[in-house]
Amino acid sequence: MDLGNLTIKKLGNMYRAKEVTVREVVDAYLKEIEAKNGELNAYLGIYDDVIEQAEEAQKKIDAGLGTELTGVPFAVKDNILIKGKRVGAASKILENYIGSYDAFVIEKLKKEGVVFIGRTNLDEFAMGGSTENSAYGVTKNPHDTNRVAGGSSGGSAAAVGADLALVSLGSDTGGSIRQPASFCNVVGLKPTYGSVSRSGLMAMGSSLDVIGPITKTVTDAEIIFNTIKGKDTKDGTSHDGEWGEKKETKKVIGVPRSFLGIDGIDDDVKENFEKSLEDMRKLGYEVRDIEMPTLPLSLAVYYIIMPAEVSSNLSRFDGVKYGMHVDGENLVDDYFKTRGAGFGKEVRRRILIGTYVLSSGYYDAYYRKAVLARNKIKKEFEEVFKDVDVIALPTSPVPSFKIGEKSDPLSLYLADIFTVSANIAGVPAISLPGGTVERDNKKLPTGFQLFAPHNREDILFSYGKSFLGED
Amino acid sequence: MIKKDDVQKLANLARIETTDTEAEEFANDLEHILEYVGQVNTLDLSDEQGQTGPVFNVMREDGDAHESGAHTEDLLNAAPDREGNYFKVKKIL
């Protein structure tokens, strides 16, 4: 079976024509996992009921009750809950934790009869851009196993990139779907904030977090997004996506030109980006330079707001309600010991930064300023979207880097420079395979990223399909 | 300048046991990170309003409550220690 060229539509046609059974497809993926996962470490675990799920899906198809997604093999990031299944955010503090309920997105996908293959690796609690912060080892890049798959949804991106699943779910707080998708040469969609419910997603930065698909084609990302989106009473910030102006598009792409001049962007990544813009021009799009002077400050804003929310969200891990418990001399000492031993270094670092920027005396200089700056950035997006339909940027300033290469935390943070603004403003963005660059005689993928106004995923899908030549 | 003692104070607020060696390392990291994020102070934000949007209730009404005890076992099964239908913790007073 040619897994490399398989898409949701093709698979659906094969199922309906009875060319293949769900079991055969699932077995083919399990065989790939058996062969490659030992080295790549994309999956942390394969679910024990994969075959039963496949048989259930087959029954649905045979009874003529199948939908587009019935029997589609999904990988799930290890911070999304499935009832009764092991889930741990790649953290020691959740060792042995079993999901107590289904996430909203899981409920939706169960109704479609998809097959959940296994849970994928990530940076602990989704904090990082390389999966090097996982308590269970790094996920290697399928294009060069000396390099990282990106992060935090590195396992989900590598699984799709290496044909260990047809599609996967990730979560994006500052680029965690798009950056690993770009490193692994696949498509990654960060939907509009609130368009997909966060119920059942382990919280990191609650005003930034969103679940989205990682796929090989834009069409597949669209199918999954249309299935998992929607208002949910269990997430008060979720919505039906019906608000906001839906003006007609004019095929105009804006490029914040001066932002591309920042330090730390590789020349050949920039060249690839220019080539992608040229491709869009040839397809009949107008490419126009735009000014977004506050945009480069998104990263500073992000690294204040996100840790602040992290420090608050992760206070729930106390060794009492679930997860690891380390015994101390008294109750408070239990908390100290459990959290000291259970959280990895980057998680503790971010909790400390968050505690700092929220503490009295520093709140006004950091958190309050960041909230105001966030408003300014949002307005900048709104202003620009009056004139252009989408904004284009590279997904990452560099291709996949070597494992262990970026040991200083700030240098890793800087790799998020082109992705975080979508989370700060809450707008949707997509990373598309945008050509390769050469490092150590290996071809490494880069990403072409498009941002659209709130609730305009439809523009990203339409422009993305024309960029990748999908019908 | 962030010092080791400042980190220990933060760690204390965040209830995280931290060794002195690590506090030293974190002090250095935090110094660099705070210097970077301090860029927000270069912006003119005098036109911006605080982000306290319209206040509305996002919680469900009490009337829709599920049957009492429906999730008790699922949730307590995840606890490191329990006594009957309670989470068990050390004596507080």
Helix content of chain B: 25-40%
- For the largest beta sheet of chain B, what order do the strands appear in spatially? 1-2
Total E-strand runs of chain A: 13
The largest interface is:
A-B, 60 and 45 residues
Report the major sheet of chain A: 11 strands, mixed
What's the name of the CATH homologous superfamily of chain A? Answer: Amidase signature (AS) domain
Strand content of chain B is: under 5%
Q: Tell me the distance between the termini of chain A.
A: 23 Å
SSE run of chain A = HHEHEHEEEHEHEEHEHEHHHHEHHEEH
Structural class of chain B: mainly alpha
Helix content of chain A: 25-40%
CATH architecture of chain A: Alpha-Beta Complex
CATH-defined architecture of one domain in chain B: Orthogonal Bundle
Which shape of chain A, going by the Cα principal axes? globular
What's the assembly state of these chains? heterodimer
- Low-confidence runs of chain A: none
How much of the sequence of chain A is in beta strands?
15-25%
Alpha plus pi helix count of chain A: 15
